[in-house]
Amino acid sequence: MPKIIDHDQRKEEILNTALAVFAREGYKDSNLSLIAQECGISRPTIYQYFHDKEEIYYYAVKLVTSKMFRKYADIAWQTTGNIAEKLKEICIEIITMGFENQKSLTALVDVMMLLRKEGKDFSDVILKRTAKLNILFKRLLRIGIKNKELKGVAINDVTGHLMTLIEAFCFQIAFLDDYDLQSSISLLTIYIDSLKADTP
Length: 200
Known about the structure:
It is a single chain. The protein has a domain at 61-193: Tetracycline Repressor, domain 2. Helices cover 75% and strands 0% of the residues. It is built from nine helices and no strands.
């Protein structure tokens, strides 16, 4: 009886191995043959899933952001609590996940920077993949203002601030050996608390 292969699982295994290879060897010195060898599969088999390293990168961004958004949507709509606490939980979860997966995050950022030097711009891909998070923040802010939990803030500005803070923290995680997660959490907490409506 032939072995049943879970193709989604295998694709994710290839991705995780590729990120580890990128982190260890550098994107430029990595190739599909090496990734296939470390996965314990043949090079023709890896081509059934990915055509090149760039496609692996796109898939990594898509996979990570899809999983993240499902989790954050659950926090936003399936949990109780005020809007400020939900915003904090989502933001802290994002940077904590980045911190816990520092090597993979560094590999992704390294690839992005290298490909940018080669004239390939991933900003559109990143913007598309983070658009749902942007919309989620705006919806939560609108609800918080409507319910008088938050001040009447400029929703687009605050969403931009949150996205910029998260992006800055992710770059720090990727490049700084002495990154301080607790300082970032404190800064996010102070910022989000400053949005709370004054209570009489």
